[in-house]
Give the backbone structure.
Amino acid sequence: MTIERSLVLVKPDGFQRGLSGEVLRRIEAKGYTLVALAILTPTVEQLAAHYAEHEGKPFYEPLVEFMSSGPVTAAVIEGQDCVRGFRSLAGATNPTEAAPGTIRGDLGRDWGLKVQQNIVHGSDSPESAAREIGIWFPGL
Ligand code: DAT
Ligand code: MG
């Protein structure tokens, strides 16, 4: 049994479209527990830490600009294998390619504004989750 935690963000596109509740609904319906929840507008400093692995890539600057453009819903979720499980719920990075049944596949599409507008973020490993939870929920 590995009870994990994962860091989920409903990105500015998802927040603006009123999809925070739908994302949280799917998380709870899957059987994961909400441990922490916040609405905040990310700072560039938070995003630089969060997306450090992508620094220098061509999409990095537009990604940080987009992610700091408005409020996000940040959540820490908990459950058996929830890191992989939420990635599975979220679907492929590109919403055009994400399978039906997934958050990105059901609710996302290419808006002509690149794949950065893909509704949600989910940690990609338990180690990433621990690091990211420290950025968005220090002290948790
Ligand atoms: P994921 O969010 O599925 O973990 P990632 O960590 O590789 O994907 O990338 C982080 C975010 O950056 C992703 O959600 C959207 C954006 N992104 C990734 N690859 C991109 C690309 N080739 N062009 C534009 N944006 C991209
Ligand atoms: Mg990632």
User: Anything to note?
Assistant: The beta strands are 3-10, 33-40, 72-80, 120-122. The pocket of magnesium ion (ligand 2) is lined by residues 124 (CB under 6 Å). The domain at 3-123 is CATH 3.30.70.141 (Alpha-Beta Plaits).
